[in-house]
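SAMPLE LOG
Freezer: B-3
Tube label: C17
Construct: single chain, 177 aa
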Amino acid sequence: TLDGERVCVVGLGTLGTGIARRAAALGMDVVGVRRSGEPHDHARHVYTPDELTRAVDGARFVVLALPLTAETKGLVSTATFDAMDEQSFLVNVARGAVVDEDALVGALDAEAIAGAALDVFETEPLPPASPLWDDDRVFVTPHTSAMHRRYHEDVATLVRTNVRRLRAGEDLTNRVV
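STRUCTURE (predicted):
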């Protein structure tokens, strides 16, 4: 049922690349958003962040996989939701503050989008009074998708690699700038 559906992956780093690769393998029409705008092996077209509303237009799924920086805080706002189709779903596996949560609630209330799957929020844990808890179109999950049996080994490898790179005067791996 995903074959031919468009997905917009916002953030084409390690996590976003994995999402784009899997979506393409499922036959989805993948477009992406990345700061550089450079082409990506698994995306038919890549937009820059200032083209976000164009990127999400026509996408059934908008998946957020970007870091939280001064530039990305509140990036997904009313303008983004207005550009999305009323059958679109937002998936946020990035950082909560990338999404203007009030704008998300407004978009859901106005039925401007079909729903959302969220495992991160502006305030964590998600406050009990949040309207997102009671909205049947919202899937709330714990932010543990990276956890797996050898997660601690992967983190240890990353730390060792970065200590070696730091000592050698090289750029760090996974550094967000």
